[in-house]
Amino acid sequence: MARLPESWQVPSPFPADILLLRRQMPTKFIFVTGGVVSSLGKGISVASIGRILKSRGLTVSVIKLDPYLNVDPGTMSPYQHGEVL
């Protein structure tokens, strides 16, 4: 891959030692929970938090899970589940 000219390169806002230290940090998790109403903005909140963390140099992965054990959410009432696919 070709390198960009010096005038095009944007310096990192973080010194190299901080970036190295961040690579060695253990994985941390943020759980966003809420009620059954889909319009509460949980997705927007998660996206905003992720964007802020990414802008600070962290690696972010979003995973959505429905915590139903031995229950098919497709057969549940929308009031119980919040979204029916």
Structure report:
There is one protein chain. The protein has 85 residues and is mainly alpha-helical. The chain is built from three helices and no strands. The longest helix is centred in the middle third of the chain and has 14 residues, at 42-55. It is elongated.
Quick structural gist:
31% of the residues lie in helices and 0% in strands. With 85 residues, it is mainly α.
Order of helices and strands: HHH
Helical percentage:
25-40%
Strand content: under 5%
Strand tally is: 0
Low-confidence stretches: none
The whole-number mean of residue pLDDT values reads: 71
**Number of DSSP helices?**
3
SSE layout and pairings?
Layout: H1 16-23, H2 42-55, H3 78-81
Label this structure with key terms.
85 residues; mainly alpha
